[in-house]
Amino acid sequence: MSDWQDVMLPPGWRLVVLEETGSTNDEVRLRCQDEAGLVVLAEKQTAGRGRRGAAWLSIEGESLTFSVLLRPSEPKAIWPRLSLAAGMAVADALGRYGIEAEIKWPNDLLIGGKKISGILVEAGADYVVVGIGLNLGTLQFPEGLEATSMAMESGRSVQGAEVLSFILTALDGWSREIGGGFPDLLKRVRERCALSGRQVRLISGNRVVEGQVVQIGNSGELIVNTPDGPKSFLQAHEVRPI
Length: 242
Ligand code: BTN
Description:
single chain, alpha+beta, seven-stranded mixed beta sheet, five-stranded antiparallel beta sheet, 21% helix, globular, binds biotin
């Protein structure tokens, strides 16, 4: 267990640590009247949620699971860019440990194709919840799970409080770059894009599209060359390299 009182928070941010909860995203939604900068972390999450309704399983004491309440001043139409901002924040924090992660659009963090972190961004009427799950200390994952952890990648154990401090500082910075500063954020995400040039299968509702990824477009969308020509995809889509 980490010593959470050592966490360094950006100015005005607050940390609530829960021993156990269903999902930290749900906890933050319950507190959505609060001011921006509320961080809820759970030592144990019993009903963690992933994107597209999938479950997110985390091992107690071996992973970081937390959610942050944000109130972007930018128009709601560009809030989905926070997915890229959150991905970059985790990538920056991993970089502090010499771990260079790729970003699988919009915000899965991969190392050699194995997932180290997943991010779930959910918007309400006037707020956004950024939920982050990061594998810290796991040394063995269940058979068939293509996953890795900070301990496996760095060869040492890491302090959750320190990792959380790095992520929150970076998230505070990148989340301010979804408006005028977006070209810089986009440039950094493109440098880490795990999908550029890759053949992918996109699942959108019950439609399946295959094609070659061109790049992440200027608004943060994924551009894919399909048999029907280039098409742009929103972040709601599921994308898998094939
Ligand atoms: C994904 O890869 O599909 C996203 C996974 C997001 C998991 C995190 S853990 C903290 C927060 N609470 C949740 O219920 N989900 C997110």
